[in-house]
Amino acid sequence: MIRAVLVCHGELSAALLTSAEEIVGHIPDVVCISNRGKSPEIVRQEIIHAAGESAGLSGVLVMADLFGSSCWRCAMEAARARTGVPMAVVTGVNLGMLLSFSQKRDIMDFPTLASTMAEDGRRGINGPAFSSGGGT
Amino acid sequence: MILLVRVDERLIHGQVTVAWRGALDLDTFAVVDDELAGSDWEKDLVLAAAPDGTAAEIVTVADAVRLWSDWKADARRRMVLVQSFASARSIFASGVDLESLNVGGLHKREGRKEFLPYVWLDSAEMETCRYLCRSGVTLEAQNVPATSGVNLCARIGDS
């Protein structure tokens, strides 16, 4: 099993998960972490804990919202802390990426899945499609 | 020039790179931290957080003390960041004319007491704050420019 850990600002992690579940139903083994009001040390510990709390994991994919943010930095530091489970960090998590994770987690090996999530997240960004502003 | 000296355990992050950078038209971030300056891996990570179009550097306290007058004199619009009051005290105690500190974010963790939603301090940190306050350094808590500043010296008092 590959686990996802969402590390985002504010309510974003939980909101992304509940929104994705409205589309595809329950998505097991996804841990939501917010950095709100927490020192980086706490966020790091929460990520490490989330990665290490059960046996039988083939990988933990940490999806952070913002490259360069404290969420991302904590994820990188946690990944380096060697939890015993392979970890990968991607940023820019969006609904498309999470939905894709739910569909592909059981059919890809961990490194392939991690790379595919980065691609699928990017693929969700489209446009701009300009309109004339309405009217006739 | 040095436009702000900030204590923020998240160092270069969104509040700094988006909100403060915009409000103060910053183009340079100087992180002062002995531990980070000694680790290439951590250094790369912190520097990667600096947005395009800005410069960032990580230096030791000793280097910062040496560079301080240059930083004040040059044309770059710089924010100096430390992740703890201990680093701020080291800078001040080395003779830097530190008049005021912006206190951005020291968050909840075990042993810390809440003074503001984004300012939690343990007893050693409170003691360091009192030392700085007694020494005439203004401690102004303000996480982002859109909020109003709070006089942290008055808030901590002798409690």
Structure explained in plain terms:
The complex is a heterodimer of chains A (about 140) and B (about 160). With about 140 residues, chain A is α/β, with parallel strands linked by helices. Chain A has one domain: Rossmann fold, CATH 3.40.50. Chain A is about 45% helix and about 15% strand. A 4-stranded parallel beta sheet of chain A has the order 2-1-3-4, sandwiched between helices. By secondary structure, chain B is α/β, with parallel strands linked by helices. Chain B has a single domain (about 1-155), classed as Phosphotransferase system, sorbose subfamily IIB component (Fructose Permease), CATH 3.40.35. Helix content of chain B is about 40%, strand content about 25%. Chain B has helices at about 15-25, 35, 40-50, 60-75, 85-95, 125-135, 150-155; strands at about 1-10, 30, 55-60, 80, 100-105, 115, 120, 140, 150. In chain B, a hairpin with a 2-residue loop joins strand 6 (about 115) and strand 7. In chain B, helix 5 runs parallel beside helix 6. Chain B is globular and about 40 Å long. Chain B starts with a strand and ends with a helix. The model of chain B has no long low-confidence stretch (mean pLDDT about 95). Chains A and B meet through helix 2 and helix 3 of A and helix 3 of B.
